[in-house]
Amino acid sequence: MIAMVEDNKKEMFPVVDENGNIIDAATREECHNGSKLLHPVVHLHLFDEDGRLYLQKRPEWKDIQPGKWDTAVGGHVDLGENIHQALRREVKEEIGLEDFEPQLLKQYVFESEVERELVNSFKTVTNQTPHPSDELSGGRFWTREEIAEALGKNIFTPNFESEYKMLFL
Asked: Is residue 38 part of a domain?
């Protein structure tokens, strides 16, 4: 298997309104070039039975926030997919889990300098071991204390930090 070394800039995403209704379509490149086209994404916060939170390490080749620690699973909804299909696909692709029961926590708009995302944030608890794919640079479970110590130190993505504070603090 050849390791991934860059995102597919021509991948097609739905463009949505703030209620998630599809109003257009655009490429990854168009969504990430500062156009602020609102596009849906899914996040999964994966907890173990001891309450630790699994985080992924983003590879250095990612076009957004390379090398930072981030939500266990985060991915775009592809054109033609619904939120739940995208969540299950991304979880299987990124950490190899198929048997889990997601709970929707919140839907909100996240905006950075280069993009606007309609985030659909879920959580689940597992006793399974995640197996990070070559899309990631690894991952591990963090205690709440470890996360608290690292907040604000440029270790996590801004999106993860804001979502963690919004949902869990």
From this structure: yes
Counted domains in the chain: 1
pLDDT tens-digit map of 83-132: 999 999 999 999 999 999 999 999 999 998 889 999 999 999 999 999 99
| In the predicted structure, residue 14 carries a pLDDT above the cut 50 | yes
Residue 163 CB partners (closer than 8 Å, separation 6+): 43, 71, 110, 119, 121
Burial class (CB in 10 A: 0-12, 13-18, 19+), 99: exposed
Residue 6 covered by a domain: no
Q: Which residues sit opposite 38 in a β-bridge?
A: 116
DSSP at 156 = B
CATH code where residue 138 lies: 3.90.79.10
Q: Does any domain span residue 7?
A: no
Specify burial of residue 121 (Cβ count, 10 A radius: 0-12, 13-18, 19+): buried
Q: Is residue 4 part of a domain?
A: no
Which domain range does residue 16 map to? 12-168
Q: For residue 44, how many C-alpha atoms fall within 13 Å in the half-sphere facing its CB?
A: 33
